[in-house]
Structures are given as C-alpha cells and as structure tokens.
Design a protein that fits this description.
Layout (H helix, E strand, L loop, with lengths): L2 E4 L2 E3 L11 H4 L3 E9 L2 E2 L2 H15 L7 H15 L3 E9 L16 E8 L5 H6 L1 E10 L14 H12 L4 E6 L4 E4 L3 E6 L2 E4 L19 H12 L3 E4 L4 H5 L3 E6 L3 E8 L2 E2 L7 H11 L2
Parallel strand pairs: 7-8, 7-14, 11-12
Antiparallel strand pairs: 1-2, 1-6, 3-4, 3-5, 5-6, 8-9, 10-11, 10-13, 13-14, 14-15
Amino acid sequence: MTAIWINGEMTTAEEARVSAFDAGIQHGVGLFETLLAREDRVIHLLQHLDRLEESVRETRLSSRMRPDGIAEAIHRTVKAADLPASRIRVTITGGDLNLLHGQGGEHDPTIMVVAQPATAYPDELFDRGVRVSVADARANPLDPLAGHKTLDYWSRLTELQSAAAKGASEALWFMVSNHLAGGCVSNVILVKDDEFITPIARGEEPEGGLPSPVLPGIVRAEVLGWAAAEGRVIRREMIGIETVLTADEVLLTNSSWGVLPVVGLEQEAIASGAPGPVATALRAWWLEQ
C-alpha cells in the first residue's frame, strides 16, 4: 500500500492535504530526495539525509530541518507501507512562506514522506542496455540552484517526453558550454581504458573554477567508491560529447534503478552497442545493496 506522512501525522492518499498557499505550490520553492527501501531497510539513508541537509542550508530553505526527525518519519512511513520494495519520496517545501516579507529560514516548512511500491525495472533493460538522446535544454553553471534537487523538474520531464518519442530512455543534459552535466533524472559515469570519468559535481569544483550545475548523486558517489576500491583511476572533469561517444561504457546512476548501461546516443552506438563488463559487475553489486 501507499503510506504518507505529512508534518508529523500519518495519512492516506485520499486524505493527504497541503495548504493552497504552500510555497511549493505557489512558487515551486522546495527540495526533495528519492530513496529505495527493501522491506524495512532504507538504502543509503544517511547519505540522502546529509545531501538534503546541505541543500536546505545552502538554499536557505529552512533553519528548522532535523535530519533525525526525518529519518524517523521515513522509517515510520516505510513500516506503514509494508512493501517488499518501496520508492520513498521526501519533500520539503517553504510552507506558507512569503519571501517578499523577508521571513528567511525562520518559517515552518512543509515536510512530506511518501512510500509506495518501487518501480519494477525489467531485467532486459540492464541485459540489453538503453539508448539516450541529447536534451535541447542546457544547464547553467551560474544558476545557484542547478546542483540541488529542487521541485523545478518541468523542463526535465519535458526532455524525458521528447526522449521517449525518439525511442530513448533518458536524455543527456549538457551545459551552456556544451560540456556534459548528466541525465534528466540521473548522473553519468563513463568508463574508458579502465578509468572512470564523470562530470565535476557541486562541491567538487577546482579552486577558482565556475560552480557546477551537476547534482552530487548518491549512487554516483557509491559507484566511484566501488571503483576506487577496485583500484581504478577516477577523473572528475569537463566532458565533451566526443568523449561520451568514444567511451568503452556509459553508465547512468540513480537511486531507483541503481546502474543502467547506455548502448547508444541518438543514432550512434556506444562501443559494441552492448553492456560492458563494468555495467554487469555493478548490476550485481547494486542488487546486493
């Protein structure tokens, strides 16, 4: 079943309500995290809460976030859902916030946790890999919110619709400088000559460099940790489309599917056009998480 927790109270899908004046509805002011639970075990919970707390602080969304309280709400909601695998969405909005009145971070945010059945991705998706397109939109490194999981997903969803119309499963976003940022709902990692190459994410920028519009993905960080433990070289750098097209493997990471291999970009094949050994190894690793 689907279970919902809002501002300290469990509710149902039929009865769940937020204010018509909530800043998330009025202005799209808010952040979210998507997590996966297997039975009552929430995967990478602390990493998600750390990233959420950092984003709340950096965006000045609220000064009243309590990670331990949100963790308790997540566990309570997952238990109420009682599912073998849950997709968890944690949303924090500005609440009844009027930014023009200078309330800053002293207002009460709206906090909502939803646990519902996790998306069941077919095995063939990972056995055969997926194709991706190139998004028309571009990520702006000067947008201070670009590297956070904000509620502003309209353009990403539009690009996903366009990708689906082309027979693609995801669309790659590039920056205004034509360097790779990531997917609409995923991070990107390339494998080339046993090296792992990924775009520079928020918080990883070199001193004096432009800020990055790339979200520091949780599964991305775990995959890079796996690679480091395997003794692989890891490079965080600005990546052009030619580097993507000449990679041995291209991997998409997020907390819903884990690691998804890309076998083609638009009309071009990636390497042999089939998932490589790294994708296969990481699929097995993810299923053991």
